[in-house]
Design goal:
Enzyme class: hydrolase
Largest sheet: 4 strands, mixed
CATH architecture: Alpha-Beta Complex
Strand content: 25-35%
Keywords: DNA damage, DNA repair, DNA replication, Hydrolase, Magnesium, Metal-binding, Mutator protein
GO molecular function: 8-oxo-7,8-dihydrodeoxyguanosine triphosphate pyrophosphatase activity; 8-oxo-7,8-dihydroguanosine triphosphate pyrophosphatase activity; 8-oxo-dGDP phosphatase activity; 8-oxo-GDP phosphatase activity; metal ion binding
Number of domains: 1
CATH class: Alpha Beta
Family: Belongs to the Nudix hydrolase family.
Shape: globular
Bound molecules: 8-OXO-guanosine-5'-triphosphate
CATH superfamily: Nucleoside Triphosphate Pyrophosphohydrolase
Distance between the termini: 33 Å
Helix content: 10-25%
EC number: 3.6.1.55
Strand order of the largest sheet: 4-1-6-5
Structural class: alpha+beta
Number of strands: 7
Oligomer: single chain
Length: 142
């Protein structure tokens, strides 16, 4: 990828933790941040020198205190804004799914978390890119 293109993209990873009943863990963004109060898949920005899987494992440890082996992450799909305002960076979110992890998810940053049926995600108030990610998760599970 050309340097210019890299500067215009902001890579973000997200993880669908799936429990034995097939429910998925969602967390609520803190009020005061962009998309505050909306429900999202846990995750965050990929840092320099990380693979997407390493970033996902780091973010899930930071946010929920769980251990994730990079090989336990299945690629589900991605979402990106179809049209960008001039000069804005394109957020590209890569969604992984995991059925196995170490520890019990506990909010580490004071955020609310809850388990939802995968088919129920579309009814949640979410940031825009989490809707196509939720649809990709429904399709991936079939
Ligand atoms: N999940 C999600 N994130 C989005 C969407 N659109 C969008 O710009 N983002 C941005 O993607 C980034 C996700 O990274 P993050 O979770 O580490 O960001 P953050 O604001 O919680 O943490 P920060 O304090 O490190 O910036 C945020 O800047 C978030 O605002 C979207 O539709 N869904």
């Amino acid at each position: 990828m050309a340097d210019g293109a890299a500067q215009m993209m902001l890579p973000v990873v997200a993880v669908a933790l799936l429990d034995e009943q097939g429910r998925v863990l969602m967390q609520q963004r803190p009020l005061g941040k962009q998309h505050g109060g909306l429900w999202e898949f846990p995750g965050g920005k990929v840092e320099a020198g990380e693979s997407p899987q390493q970033a996902a494992a780091r973010e899930l440890a930071e946010e929920l205190g769980v251990g994730l082996a990079p090989c336990a992450l299945d690629a589900v799909g991605f979402a990106a804004e179809p049209v960008l305002a001039k000069g804005r960076r394109s957020v590209v979110i890569l969604l992984f799914a995991a059925r196995h992890w170490q520890g019990t998810p506990q909010p580490q940053e004071g955020q609310n978390m809850a388990w939802y049926g995968v088919e129920d995600l579309a009814a949640l108030a979410m940031p825009p890119l989490d809707y196509p990610l939720a649809r990709a998760l429904v399709a991936w599970r079939r």
